[in-house]
């Protein structure tokens, strides 16, 4: 993973997909795994879990938005533009979670701005192009 920001109700990621996981896409595997983890973590917290309940024949809960946006990043310019967007997301007027991207704890902004690597799984996007 190269960059991320975790917001109160969504997440932005920049990652490289190397290959499919069997028949599943990497994105599908990620969404499936995290949904199972969310359900496991929320089990026993009925009020919170009930917020994700759906009336569907193939599932009881839905944690991820259907048709979430996925944008291929083929050029350095597009990748950097998307990374800037995700790092500025916590500062947006309707969020106001920080006044500087580096202040927001759940983001890779501090790594890219100050060189502080708080997440061991992060690889530098600047090395990719």
Automatic annotation (TrEMBL):
SUPFAM superfamilies: Transposase IS200-like. InterPro entries: Transposase_17_sf. This is Transposase. It comes from Shiella aurantiaca.
């Amino acid at each position: 993973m190269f960059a991320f920001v975790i917001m109160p109700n969504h997440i932005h990621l920049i990652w490289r997909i190397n290959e499919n996981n069997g028949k599943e896409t990497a994105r599908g595997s990620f969404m499936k795994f995290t949904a199972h983890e969310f359900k496991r973590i929320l089990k026993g917290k009925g009020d919170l879990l009930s917020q994700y309940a759906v009336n569907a024949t193939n599932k009881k809960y839905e944690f991820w938005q259907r048709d979430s946006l996925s944008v291929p990043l083929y050029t350095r310019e597009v990748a950097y533009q998307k990374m800037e967007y995700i790092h500025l997301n916590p500062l947006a007027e309707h969020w106001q979670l920080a006044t500087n991207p580096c202040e927001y704890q759940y983001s890779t902004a501090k790594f890219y701005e100050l060189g502080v690597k708080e997440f061991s799984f992060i690889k530098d996007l600047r090395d990719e192009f």
